[in-house]
Amino acid sequence: MDEDDELCLCFHVTRRKVIQYIRVNRPTLPSQLSECYGAGTGCGWCRPFLKRLIEETDPQDVELPDVATYAANRREYRNKTT
Ligand code: FES
């Protein structure tokens, strides 16, 4: 996943926006990223990934799936939860 790919697909929040928010605001919980354009407040799929970015010293070091895999896994997640 590149910097300009959407990490929160529900609210179209890019990985770059999330990382910038983390660097500036130093959140300790994924729920605090709701102030970053609503990231994590929709289906919930991205919350574990948001948590990983928060917990990493340098959030840019976190390996995330490629865009197609990420979106496909989210569709599967949503099909199970709705
Ligand atoms: S992908 Fe972020 S809340 Fe649905």
Q: What is the radius of gyration computed over CA atoms, rounded to a whole number of angstroms?
A: 12 Å
Largest sheet: 2 strands, antiparallel
Q: Identify the strand order in the major beta sheet.
A: 1-2
Record field, number of beta strands = 2
The helical percent reads: 40-55%
The end-to-end distance, rounded to whole angstroms, is 26 Å
Shape: globular
Unreliable parts: none
Instruction: Quickly give the structural class.
Output: mainly alpha
What's the order of the H and E elements? Answer: EEHHH
Mean pLDDT: 95
Counted by DSSP, the helix tally is 3
Q: Supply the number of structural domains.
A: 1
Which molecules are bound besides the chains? FE2/S2 (inorganic) cluster
The percentage of residues in β strands lies in: 5-15%
Describe the structure.
This protein is mainly alpha-helical and 82 residues long. It has one domain (6-81). The chain has three helices and two strands; from the N terminus they run E-E-H-H-H. A two-stranded antiparallel ribbon has the order 1-2. A hairpin with a 4-residue loop joins strand 1 and strand 2. The chain starts with 5 loop residues before the first strand and ends with a helix. The mean pLDDT is 95. Residues 8-10, 40-46 line the site of FE2/S2 (inorganic) cluster (FES). The site of FE2/S2 (inorganic) cluster has 10 residues, from loops.
Write the layout of secondary structure elements.
Blueprint: E1 6-8, E2 13-14, H1 15-25, H2 47-55, H3 67-81
Antiparallel strand pairs: 1-2
FE2/S2 (inorganic) cluster is lined by residues 8-10, 40-46.
